[in-house]
Amino acid sequence: DQQVKQNSPSLSVQEGRISILNCDYTNSMFDYFLWYKKYPAEGPTFLISISSIKDKNEDGRFTVFLNKSAKHLSLHIVPSQPGDSAVYFCAASYGGSARQLTFGSGTQLTVLP
Amino acid sequence: KAGVTQTPRYLIKTRGQQVTLSCSPISGHRSVSWYQQTPGQGLQFLFEYFSETQRNKGNFPGRFSGRQFSNSRSEMNVSTLELGDSALYLCASSLVPGGAYNEQFFGPGTRLTVL
User: Fold this and answer.
1) Residue A14 CB: number of other CB atoms within 10 A?
2) pLDDT for A11-25, tens place per residue?
3) pLDDT > 70: percent of chain A
4) How many other CB atoms are there within 10 angstroms of residue A27's CB atom?
5) How far apart are CA A7 and CA B15, in angstroms?
6) Distance to chain B for A78, nearest Cα, Å
7) What's B106's DSSP letter?
8) What is the pLDDT of residues A87-107, one digit of tens each?
9) What is the per-residue pLDDT for B98?
10) Whole-number Å distance between alpha carbons of A101 and B34
11) Is B84 touching A (CB cutoff 8 A)?
12) Which of B89, B99, B114 shows the shortest CA–CA distance to B21?
């Protein structure tokens, strides 16, 4: 039972346009969400996070939106650059000291020059 | 500052064998988590160690085990390997435990192939 789902395995976007990556979750206990980016042959790197008390968090070109009622979050990249081409994972967690990350299966973003 | 290092980077084993993977966290980081990445499954949490103690464990069989040393380096062991254990094994470190609430830094992973 996948509690965090990324239903689009791949996404292609033109350079300069907006990239929107989506993530759905089923566990209403999740209260902290993160996005990671992964290049081939490297480990994932942290991108941006959001707490469930917020509905938006922005960091430069990256914005994460959280819709708790729909159990949906999205990552917006504006403007998209070729260097953004990577696999993007969303992750969620809940609990106190025993928190652990539950990841989605990832979305391959390709930004075309 | 050196990042998270994992050794070996690639490993080929046969069914029934056992394997040990190593992870050295970023200097000063005391929490180490392990993940398994397989195609279509994303990253699945294996366990987390802090101060040589396992703090949290994912839903994996007992064949998967780990430990952490006093210098925060960690090893994970998989016994009686199965074909389905073929995966990328990632290690992540963070300053404090509860890495899911703090930024984790990942190593490049160990690619294990079981034949």
Assistant:
1) 12
2) 999 999 999 999 999
3) 96
4) 14
5) 33
6) 23
7) E
8) 999 999 887 766 788 899 999
9) 64
10) 11
11) no
12) B89
Q: Which residue of A has its CA nearest to B4?
A: A43
| Three-state DSSP state, B61 | coil
Q: In the predicted model, is pLDDT for residue A59 greater than 70?
A: yes
Q: Is B76 helix (H, G, I), strand (E, B) or coil?
A: strand
Q: Which residues in chain A are closer than 8 Å to B91, comparing Cβ atoms?
A: 43
Q: What is the DSSP string of B32-60?
A: EEEEEEETTTEEEEEEEEETTEEEEE-S-
> CB contact, 8 Å: A25 with chain B?
no
DSSP annotation string for A57-79: EEETTEEEEEETTTTEEEEEESS
Nearest residue to B93 via CA among A30, A46, A89: A46
* A96 near B CB under 8 A: yes
Cross-chain residue pair A103–B35, CB shorter than 8 Å: yes
Q: How far apart are CA B23 and CA B5, in angstroms?
A: 6
Q: Which residues are bridge partners to A34 per DSSP? A: A49, A91
Among B110, B103, B112, B111, residue whose Cα is nearest residue B26: B103
CA distance A44 to chain B (A): 6
pLDDT (average), residues B23-49? 91
Q: Is B100 on the interface with A (CB under 8 A)?
A: yes
Chain B, residues 31-70, CB within 8 A of chain A, namely 33, 35, 40-45, 48, 55-56, 58
Beta bridge partners of B87: B112
Here the tokens at position A62 are 């990256």
pLDDT above 90: residue B71:
yes
| pLDDT value at residue A81 | 97
